[in-house]
Amino acid sequence: MSQPNTQRNLATWKGVCSETDLVSNSGVVVWLDGSQVALFYLPGAQDQTLFAIDNHDPESGANVIGRGLIGSIKGDLVVAAPIYKQHYRLEDGQCLEAPDQRLRVWPVRLNAGVVELALD
């Protein structure tokens, strides 16, 4: 995983699960201060291996992003929403089919076996 930048080092981090709770090349969902966050662990990715993105699908209104399929489109790692199949970039939450849609993303890191998310 890439090293956090200086801004991320100043963030307040909150543990949300254990590294052993992650499933390789798949999503798991955690609760963070009233929000469902989908975590995707991609151990074969080159730069960043852990991503945290909003679990709420704006098209269907369901909390299902964590069950989406992971893939790559034009070099971007994406998750396909399970119901209507929009593709969201894991890096920044941007929808490839509808540029006006974006899922929230959180800075995420592994710290001594604990998955931590940065709080606003």
From TrEMBL:
This is Nitrite reductase small subunit NirD. It comes from Pseudomonas reactans. The gene is nirD. It comes from the Bacteria. Residues 14-117 form the Rieske domain. Pfam families: Rieske_2 (PF13806). PANTHER family: NITRITE REDUCTASE (NADH) SMALL SUBUNIT (PTHR40562:SF1), PTHR40562. The keyword Cell inner membrane does not apply. Keywords: 2Fe-2S, Iron, Iron-sulfur, Metal-binding, Nitrate assimilation, Oxidoreductase.
